[in-house]
Design brief:
This protein is mostly helical. Helix content is 64%, strand content 3%. The protein has helices at 43-49, 51-71, 77-96, 102-128, 136-153, 163-180, 186-207, 214-231, 233-256; strands spanning 2-3, 7-8, 33-34, 264-265. The chain is elongated. It holds the Pfam family GPI2. Pathway: Glycolipid biosynthesis; glycosylphosphatidylinositol-anchor biosynthesis.
């Protein structure tokens, strides 16, 4: 198609000097396409993907319950530290045995773990008295906010490392520090901070190596329901409702709403160099 004395419009900038900047002809929409990238996620796959969110929620609640047990003296720091360390060693070797350079990695990781344990134990009295001047209600409110930030910005199994992932880890550790400052002794604080590193740093790394997390999600959810039922039946019902909503209802909505999807693609899209 021509315009203004026989000038033919072309889809570039340098050949349309005498035409208005916003001018296009009828050929502009000939390349219009709709929904060229269909989402072929099945119902089972969608529910499986929802397990990552369920796992993260269960981990946060299980950690809070560890704090409650320590705070109420229902268990001792030695039992918490020993049991969590045993689970960490089991998970570590189940992952490390598959690596080719296992001896070198084990020696480096042992040094890192010893440094963390030494500094953590030495600094526990300082961490214990870090927030003595802050009221307990403020501490609990800050902890809830920090764990909400952790849940919002978690990458939920995505292999890409981003700023949101660092924010998620930082907020969870900060919330753990807040809770640890309200425990009875430095040993209590040290054991809780050790569990925090295991839950929010080491465990997500191990889970990222597992493709199908459905079985782990079921085990963690069942454990959370059992332990939470001891503390509060009402909170247990709320947790079960939230888990069903996140793990089942939301994926089903996602599959159902795919038919309303209407994405358009055309010459206005960003150029892709092949």
């Amino acid at each position: 198609m021509t315009h203004n004395g026989g000038i033919r419009w072309r889809k570039n900038l340098y050949e349309n000097r005498d035409l208005p900047d916003n001018y296009t002809d009828s050929s502009f929409l000939e390349e219009l396409e709709k929904n060229i990238k269909p989402n072929n996620v099945t119902t089972i796959e969608a529910i499986t993907l929802g397990s990552s969110i369920s796992i993260q929620l269960s981990i946060v609640i299980l950690f809070v319950m560890v704090f409650i047990w320590l705070n109420n003296e229902w268990t001792t720091p030695d039992i918490i530290f020993t049991s969590s360390a045993g689970l960490t060693v089991f998970g570590y070797f189940s992952h490390t045995l598959k690596l080719p350079d296992m001896p070198d990695k084990i020696s480096k990781d042992i040094r890192t773990a010893l440094i963390f344990l030494a500094f953590g134990y030495i600094l526990s009295p300082v961490l214990k008295t870090l927030t003595e001047t802050v009221s307990t209600d403020t501490i609990y409110a800050m902890t809830i906010f920090m764990f909400l930030v952790h849940l919002i910005f978690s990458k939920y199994g995505s292999p890409q490392v981003s700023l949101s992932d660092s924010l998620s880890i930082t907020s969870s550790i900060f919330g753990s520090l807040m809770l640890a400052s309200r425990l009875a002794s430095p040993l209590h604080a040290f054991s809780l901070l050790t569990v925090a590193v295991q839950c929010f740093v080491l465990l997500p790394f191990l889970l990222s190596k597992i493709e199908n997390k459905t079985v782990i999600s079921i085990l963690l959810t069942a454990s959370t329901v059992y332990l939470l039922g001891i503390i509060s039946p009402t909170l247990t019902c709320v947790f079960v409702a939230v888990t069903i909503f996140v793990h089942v209802i939301c994926p089903l909505w996602y599959i159902r709403w795919q038919k309303y999807k209407d994405n358009i693609y055309g010459p206005w899209d960003e150029a892709v160099i092949k």
